[in-house]
Structure formats: structure tokens, C-alpha cells
Design brief:
- The chain has six helices and no strands.
- By secondary structure, it is mainly alpha-helical.
- The longest helix has 22 residues.
- α5 runs antiparallel to α6.
- 79% of the residues lie in helices and 0% in strands.
């Protein structure tokens, strides 16, 4: 069995799609309610618990739950399905990152900031934070990504 590894162009394209979908779901999502914002908070808390035990693979899973919860604010099963595909591809990318702790640890705080903005109802600022977050994550991954 052979599993394709995304190359640098694929990483760029995944982030291109994510930069269009995630901030828009946060800013304009029609399913923005306490329950869905609660799912964002649950993912933040899950990540903090995993970090507390040194479970960096668990932090990575929690981070994926966080991003899925952001897209769920749109209230679109089709977008949820597309996000699941994008995040599955991201899992392949993370297998090539040499230090998952180094990658994920800074995003624990960023996730909390975004969630706090959502809890305060400041969707515009939260969307801006998501945009900056995704740009930083893409740059960090590409800098560490083995071109071979």
C-alpha cells in the first residue's frame, strides 16, 4: 500500500482553501449559536488537557476539532464534509513535521483567543485572527517542510 505525501504546492493549496472557508464561517456563519461556540471551547479545552499530559498527538487532534468547530459555525454539511477532507490531508502533512510540539504549542493560546472573541460575539475580530493564524501556520509548515 502507498500513501501519497502532499508536496509544498499541495500544502499551499490546502491553506488557500482554508483561508477562504474558515474566516468566512466565523464571520458569516448562519449557525453561530451558544452550542456551536461551546464546541469551539470544548476543542480548546481538549487541547489544553492534552498538552498538560504531554500528549502532543492529542493536541494535534484537538486542533483539528477546533478548526472543524469553526467551520461548523457555517451550518453547512457540505462545508463540514470538505473541511474533513482538508484536515485529513493536513494529517499527512503533519507526519512530515519534525517536532509536533514545537508546531502546535503556540496555537493553543491562539485558539483560546479566537474562542474568547467568539464567546464575546466579536466575529469580525475572530475572523481576522483566524486569517492571521492560518497565514502563520502555512509559513511555519513550509519553512519546516522537507522538500525531498
Amino acid at each position: 500500500m502507498f500513501v501519497a505525501q502532499p508536496d509544498r504546492d499541495a500544502v499551499r493549496d490546502v491553506y488557500r482553501a482554508r483561508r477562504l472557508v474558515e474566516p468566512a464561517a466565523v464571520r458569516l456563519g448562519e449557525a453561530f449559536d451558544d452550542e456551536r461556540v461551546g464546541a469551539v471551547r470544548a476543542a480548546v479545552d481538549e487541547g489544553r488537557r492534552a498538552a498538560g499530559t504531554g500528549d502532543w498527538a492529542g493536541v494535534g487532534s484537538a486542533n483539528q476539532h477546533f478548526h472543524r468547530a469553526l467551520v461548523a459555525l457555517a451550518g453547512s454539511p457540505r462545508l463540514d464534509q470538505q473541511m474533513a477532507l482538508l484536515l485529513a490531508e493536513m494529517r499527512l502533512v503533519f507526519h512530515r513535521v519534525p517536532d509536533v510540539r514545537e508546531f502546535f504549542e503556540p496555537y493553543l493560546g491562539r485558539n483560546d483567543v479566537i474562542c474568547g472573541l467568539l464567546e464575546d460575539g466579536d466575529r469580525e475580530r475572530a475572523a481576522g485572527e483566524v486569517t492571521e493564524y492560518l497565514a502563520a501556520a502555512e509559513a511555519q509548515l513550509l519553512a519546516a517542510y522537507d522538500p525531498g
